[in-house]
Specification:
By secondary structure, the protein is an alpha+beta fold. It folds into two domains: 95 residues, Alpha-Beta Plaits; 86 residues, Immunoglobulin-like (Sandwich), CATH 2.60.40.10. The protein has five helices and ten strands; from the N terminus they run αββααααββββββββ. The strands form three sheets. Strands 3, 4, 7 and 10 form a four-stranded mixed β-sheet that branches. Strands 6-5-8-9 form a four-stranded antiparallel β-sheet, with no helix packed on it. Strands 1-2 form a two-stranded antiparallel sheet. A hairpin with a 5-residue loop joins β3 and β4. The N terminus is likely disordered.
Length: 192
């Protein structure tokens, strides 16, 4: 005789079912008394819907659900620069992300300004920015608003950095510190 799944025998078989998923995607449904995860609205797709609710509701069109072979998915992953979450787990997930580095890697950003008449601050366009961090040097420049952002920094532990900012007409400035997370330095003032 088969026994129904209960929270007691589920936990005996799996441990805590909500913590057994390496992605944290399983939650406990108190009403049903079962562990659950989102299934891409498979029941709706089976009824003829052309895409899951999340893709229909997304105002930017950022979500796409496709049915494809492993080969087609791999081709798209390479061509479009898509990544899976936590590849080190070796789970071969079929959910891929664009721009995952925005949350898996650090950035350092800021704004470059100079003082003008009356004590006002003015954004500095085209200032050169050089970041020395983790035995690497990364260069950039400020945009039309005096802003800069240096992406793709390692998220492995605290790292000492030195940021040098220069502009041929307005001078130089430097900032040093320890990067432990994404960081916006605020405004860096050039002397002239």
């Amino acid at each position: 005789m088969r026994r129904p799944l209960t929270s007691r025998n589920i936990e005996r078989a799996w441990g805590s079912p909500t913590s057994s998923c390496p992605y944290g995607a399983i939650h406990w449904n108190d009403e049903a008394g079962l562990p659950q995860k989102w299934n891409f609205d498979a029941h709706l797709l089976d009824e003829g819907w052309d895409r899951p609710r999340c893709a229909q509701a997304c105002p930017t069109g950022a979500l796409e659900a496709i049915c494809s072979s492993d080969e087609e998915l791999e081709r798209r992953r390479i061509e479009e620069g898509l990544e899976c979450l936590a590849p080190e787990l070796g789970t071969r997930p079929r959910v891929l992300y664009r721009g995952l580095e925005r949350i898996s890697q650090r950035f350092l950003a800021g704004n470059v300004v100079r003082s003008v008449a009356g004590g006002r601050l003015e954004n500095v366009v085209a200032a050169q920015v050089m970041l020395s961090i983790d035995a690497r040097e990364m260069a950039g420049a400020t945009d039309a608003f005096g802003d800069f952002k240096i992406d793709h920094l390692s998220s492995a532990g605290p790292m000492s950095y030195r940021l040098e900012v220069s502009h041929a007409q307005f001078g130089e400035a430097a900032v040093e510190g320890v990067l432990t997370d994404n960081l916006h330095l605020g405004s860096i003032r050039l002397p002239h």
